[in-house]
Write a structure and sequence with these properties.
This protein is of the alpha+beta class and 443 residues long. The protein contains 13 helices and 16 strands. Helix content is 33%, strand content 19%. Strand 7 and strand 8 form a beta hairpin.
Length: 443
């Protein structure tokens, strides 16, 4: 069958981290555009395989902004937003609800149909338990099968938080916005956990803005960093007028009492228990949120690595302490066929880093990692409470890590901080008042 839309646009690739590089990311062939409400599923191919094959779809060479009027009852498809290995996402007009929506159109291939049904099960669970969408997750509006293509209808959202950071030259968010993001993330994750669901892939790419509008402010300061080897500054900063977000991409979400794959989470947001093969549950989402919040504060990912041993060494540097002896004993306890593969990372129950063949670049990178209090200086009550929350998140033992509900009760969320973020909110409110007044004057 032909897909509902025949127009094509230039799609900016999504990104994946590359260790110790001045460029944080290399393009990924399974990329998905920032305007998409979904991300492509993890690509397990080697990089050689990725570059050898790029999925293609029948499209014309029309101009990017050409509007396409194709009807998939009761929707009028307007524009292709992007495409990935699983299919396409289009912008459409919902004629019944009289508003724009996003439709994810799954390829007519059984493995992609099966994967989408798993995601639909999760989205349906979320929608049925939160009809008013108070918990800030992507909201399922409709689903239908069109010529063997499963179609998933959701609200049309803005770009990802990562893409806003990138467009802002990775200048960090104002502290007030970090707090607002954190409250929404913990609310979403607490909701998931109450439903016995673990997201497993929390990262800035999977957090979408409701509105991309921003105001540019003078910044003129050094940018915080998690590494002593990095020094950046910026004269200006784009600040969102509205820090409202939605959590997306439930393709990897797992019910806690169902099958758990051995490895989950995008590398840089992966909890230590996953790397140590000790099993994972709800706490792995909390560790990911901690990584995200530090990234919001510095503008750069906290753990930029693709190597397990180096990753653990970076964790010890940031947390300023070795991995708990109890966890190390669990890792090293197995024998023979029951031996834990992560046992090779330890020697005499201590992390065996650096090793003889460890590259000098890795040693320098790990040595430059700052301790958490040096990343988040506690010179204000706001930062002091923020640092305390992060310390309760970055706990090696998942059983002792703070939960989402506990985090929402943390004193940090009772603090108020005036900055560019609060000023941007005032600007938005004033503009909204002016729009209402202008609208009223017409009638």
């Amino acid at each position: 069958m032909s897909t509902p839309s025949t127009a094509t646009i230039t799609v900016p690739p999504s990104h994946q981290y590359y260790p110790h590089s001045t460029s944080r990311y290399l393009p990924s062939m399974n990329g998905y555009p920032p305007t998409s409400p979904y991300q492509a599923p993890p690509d397990t191919r080697t990089r050689q395989q990725q570059f050898a094959h790029t999925p293609t779809y029948p499209t014309s060479q029309s101009a990017p902004e050409q509007r396409v009027e194709t009807r998939v009852e009761p929707h009028t498809i307007q524009k292709l937003l992007g495409q990935g290995t699983f299919g396409k996402v289009v912008k459409a007009w919902d004629r019944q609800r009289r508003k724009e929506v996003a439709i994810k159109i799954i390829r007519s291939v059984q493995k992609y149909r099966d994967a989408s049904k798993i995601e639909l099960r999760v989205l349906s669970t979320l929608a049925s338990n939160d009809k008013m969408n108070r918990n800030k997750c992507i909201h399922l509006r409709d689903t239908f099968d069109f010529r063997n293509h499963i179609c998933i209808v959701t609200d049309l959202l803005g770009q990802s938080v990562f893409d806003f950071l990138k467009a802002n030259a990775f200048v960090p968010f104002p502290s007030s916005h970090i707090q607002h993001f954190a409250r929404q993330l913990f609310t979403s994750v607490a909701f998931l956990h109450d439903l016995n669901l673990i997201h497993t892939d929390l990262k800035p790419e999977n957090i979408l803005l409701v509105n991309n509008n921003y105001q540019t402010f003078t910044y003129n300061r050094n940018i915080p960093s998690s590494s002593s080897a990095v020094a950046r500054n910026s004269k200006y900063r784009k600040v969102l007028l509205d820090p409202e977000i939605r959590l997306i991409d439930f393709g990897s979400a797992t019910f806690d009492d169902e099958y758990h794959s051995s490895v989950v989470s995008t590398r840089h947001y992966r909890a230590p228990e996953i790397i140590l093969n000790l099993g994972w549950s709800f706490p792995c989402d909390i560790w990911s949120i901690g990584c995200i919040l530090v990234e919001f504060f510095t503008g750069d990912a906290l753990f930029q690595t693709h190597d397990n041993l180096e990753h653990l060494a970076m964790m010890e540097a940031v947390c300023d302490g070795p991995i708990d002896k109890m966890l190390v004993r669990q890792v090293c306890a197995g024998r023979g066929s029951n031996k834990n593969a992560a046992a090779v990372f330890f020697k005499r129950q201590m992390l065996d880093y650096p090793q003889q063949d460890t590259p000098k670049s890795s040693k320098r990178f790990v040595k430059a990692m700052k301790k958490l209090p040096d990343i988040i200086p506690s010179h204000t009550p706001f930062n002091k409470h923020f640092l305390d929350l992060l310390r309760r998140i970055f706990v090696y033992d998942p059983k002792r890590r703070i939960t989402a509900k506990e985090a929402l009760r943390h004193p940090w969320f009772r603090e108020h901080f005036e900055d560019d973020g609060t000023e941007a909110t005032k600007i938005r409110i004033e503009r909204e008042k002016q729009e209402v007044a202008a609208h009223s004057s017409r009638y």
